[in-house]
Amino acid sequence: MQATVEQRVLPVYLIVDGEVIYEIAPNSVLNIGRLDTNDIVLDDYKVSREHAILKYTGTEFMLVDLASTHGTYVNGKAIDRAMVQFGDKIQIISHDLMLSREMPEDLGNGSEPVAAAKMARTLDRRLKFFGGLNEFALITLVQFLYQEKQSGLLLLELGQKPGPRIYFLNGDIIHVSQGENLAELLVRQNHEQSLFFYFHHETNFPERTITESTPNYLMSLCHSHDEQQVPDLAEAVAVRISRTQAVTSRIKPPPLAR
């Protein structure tokens, strides 16, 4: 029994503005933002609707800014994504957040921590979800967002490295940043490193840089990649796209963030 207790992963805490305590469970992803559908709600009009994500593996923390309007800071430095340690100061607008191994005594007396575990929520058609692309190809997810006419930002993470950022407006891909390897990721069937994705509702979109239809854009990317790899396989691209469209008409949406 003693060994079991010693191996148990102890909870950690996120302290917001020195007043509110959130207990964070291992292997969880917490949404931070202004909307009350987030796990950590910052009631401030300058905070983006969905501002950032904090991912806790049980041994390390990763903080990801969701292309917020005013940015996310760690120890005074603006970040797109960063590993966060205990004692680091996370700042979102005027709000200070800090990770702690123990519940502070001056905050813990007479009050219970606010549980940050996912709760069942009623979501509208503006999907907000995340997960690993282990069971289906990236192009299947992209086709799904297109068919569902979703508006938002799809962020990809390969291993612990940031990947392409794909902006959707009413289902159409209008802009891609950091997309140098997007074509290769679209045609890849298996991922040696974990390919993780986040999709969240977005209201501030960059200027449109992609004017062709999403099916044509995907076809061009895959066609270009196949020509570079094996020229004779260019004809197979159309087959891949058509098969993907057939699959996406039958698939269920990826798990919703709760």
Care to describe what's here?
This protein has 6 helices and 17 strands. The chain has 258 residues and is α+β, with helices and mostly antiparallel strands. Strands 8-7-10-11-1-2-12 form a 7-stranded mixed β-sheet, with no helix packed on it. The radius of gyration is 20 Å and the shape is globular. It starts with a helix and ends in a 10-residue tail after the last helix. The N terminus is likely disordered.
Name the features.
alpha+beta; 5-stranded mixed sheet; 258 residues; 32% strand
User: How big is the Rg?
Assistant: 20 Å
How far is the N terminus from the C terminus?
33 Å
| Percent in helix | 10-25%
Spatially, the strands of the biggest sheet line up as 8-7-10-11-1-2-12
Number of helices: 6
How much of the sequence lies in strands comes to 25-35%
> How are helices and strands ordered from N to C?
HEEEEEEEEEEEHEEHEEEHEHH
Tally of DSSP β-strands: 17
Mean pLDDT over all positions: 76
Spans of 5+ residues with little confidence (pLDDT < 50)?
A: 1-7, 115-127, 230-234
Please summarize the sheet with the most strands: 7 strands, mixed
SSE class: alpha+beta
